[in-house]
Amino acid sequence: MDSSFLFGISTMAYILAMIIYITYLAFKKTQIGITATTITIVGFVSQTLAIIMRWKEFYDLSQMGFLRSAPLTNLYESLIFFVWCLILAYLIVEFRFKNRSFGAFVTPVAGLALAFIDISGMTKEIQPLVPALQSNWLLAHVMMSFIAYATFALSFSTALMYLILTTERKNEGAYIFWTVTAGIFVIVLLAMGIDFLAFKVTVKRPEEFIKSFLFKASFLNPSTVVKMLSWTVASAMLFALWKYGSVLKRVIRAFNISDEILDEITYKSIAVGFPVFTLGGLIFGAIWADQAWGVYWSWDPKETWSLITWFVYAFYLHSRMIRGWRGKKVAIVAVIGFVAVIFTYIGVNLLLSGLHAYGGLE
Amino acid sequence: MEGERNKTSVHKIWDLFASVKLAIVIFALISLTSIIGTVLEQRAEPAKNIQILTKLFGESLAPTMYNILEKLGFIDMYHAWWFVALLIILATNIIVCSLERLPKIWKVVKEPIQPMREEQLKKFAINREIVLKGKPDKVKDAVTGAIKGAGFNYTESKEEKGYQFYSQKGNYSRLGVYVTHFSILVILIGAIIGVFFGFNGHLNLPEGAMSNVAYSGREKVIPLGFDIRCDNFDVEFYGRSDMPKEYRSYLTVIKNGREVLKKSIAVNDPLTYEGITFYQASYGLIPENFGKGIFIFRVISRDGKISNLNLRFGDTFEILNTTISGKIIDLSPALKINEKGQVFTYANQMNNPAVYIDFSESGKHKYSGWLLKRYPETWQLPEGHRVEFIDYWGVEYTGLQVRKDPGVWVVYLGCITMSIGLYIAFFMSHRRLWVRIVEERNNTRVVIGATSNKNRAAFERKINKMLSLLSKRQEGGR
Q: Per-residue DSSP letters for A165-218?
């Protein structure tokens, strides 16, 4: 048994848990809920074992010392760790607040992150460390960043739920905001899935996939018909979500989660994530950059985007202090914060550099 | 009249800078403009950014967009006057906000806790009431023990029919926010010190060469105050792959003609001398030096005689105590042998230096072949002699990042302060606790009032635990 087998088990467990949590949301049977939790825990345990095994495999291969062999060196490993943190954070919340309904909102994020690994076809192989990554800061910096990302993902889920619950009218800004945000998430993931199916044969490396194939099967297709069709379908999906968004509200309402609890979890996750992100992401990152590159801050896209993320969450924390901002407005800020997180994490590496690489090719 | 009007406008500006709303606007402005700065490549050639803009806006609009963005300073936006102005406004905002709020908060922090009347206690967010058997003097020790057990050092005051114990903890935690805000100012001060008293330069130093200056930007010369020499540069690879494992430069610092410091540096492991730090940043081959390097061989004859040789292209050497001699007639920076046994150069970096040697015995040609630096099995000669190819020296340069930043310690100090401030602000709370015990029909009524400025639920749990322990202990004691 090797680590990839166990990773496979955890991926399946999370996707199964996602389905069961959603079923639980629909039928509200306690046994279903317990099943969902049990499967999530099974997935979590096997993922934990898998991470430990991969760490060991890496250590044996690199001979670089235990601390420097942490499996956090590429997109694949970081996504795995992100999911692990997210599930851990979720399980803590489930036990603390004795409420399972968040599961239906958190496990999809985990499942989709793992599915993204397969969709993008990114390399899963253990790669030796390039010189810049050979530092003890790697472990502290990356691990803490991802713990923070996971808490932010949690706050994203609860803030979105909060918005779904508290919005009343279809012409309300907050209602339009959540339907559009949730809609774009779903559409982007679907489009990527289609890209993957369309180009599976030709894909070699993940960067290549993202740079040359992303949205080529839909929004950026050379054929005008496909392009028009994609936009039409996407708009129709957005419209449908906007039209029938209140169905989701009724489903969540059935669970007796109060708005206050959602607001509290959102705040608490950010209150944990923000200091951890500041210390591990920004400060440790700066110290490491200082040691490796000779500048503690160089305004490169990754750094700037983490600063943007930091500002959005600072914005969140401060806006809670303004009268009239509590509630929907701060929930919107929390959702935007996680969009910034995703861009800092994946967008900068794949899209922004991709944008530049495009420029270089032509 | 005049003075009063001035005063009001000063007040208005003060109020503007004291508002959290301004902070939020500044956060938004810095974030939004920074996004543009990450899409455009900073300090790049115009052509590069025009290409990016063409992608976004189409060919016809791109040059106009570029001109507008360039005029607005977006091509080097993090150094543009308006971005610096935003940072200054943020700093001012932090200072004014703190000055505005600190006195009030300071009062709360320093204020000693006072006993309360029972009606007041019942208004607190956390309030409890239980009745214990026995008169107040009898249960007093159990109650104070419970308060101490919860980690509070209490003050006691005698009341008409009983006692009141009150205590507060973590009052200084209210200052966490200000510590965090202050740390941002410290970091900005550190950054300013770096800008004015430091420099950021680079230096490409060929193996064997020496320099007493570094370069910044478009060939601005910065004197170092000492000489730095590159003795050697080496790349280590993972196994036989071309994946680099380590870049290493062997540097020597020379001051007033004396070697004062020798250190080999690698990525993540720089050298610092007199406040100037040298980082391993890049490397490369010097094309015009390529044929002029020195081959470092260690030749071991069959009977174990070792000779260390430094040779140049075209040189001839002899293997000790034999009549065999070799002549260097070809070289490659990165040699590969394909399946058909043909050799070819696959990279223009020194990934796998190789040297072609013609061997002769007593002047008669014997055999010839490639010796590869990374493949020791090519070093063995048929007669049992061995020609070890140690290095081809003097053809590479090491690219050093050269930096002096006296502000970096101030920045680190700010970072430490920020960590402490955030810890206090998010994980500590100001908790106040009042416990009043009153005699009532020969028993004791215990009234508890408590507040916490953060994480009330946790404090509530603690108090519940305290109470249940108290009533349990009494039951057990009876």
A: HH---TT-HHHHHHHHHHHHHHHHHHHHHHHHHHHTTT--SHHHIIIIITTTTT
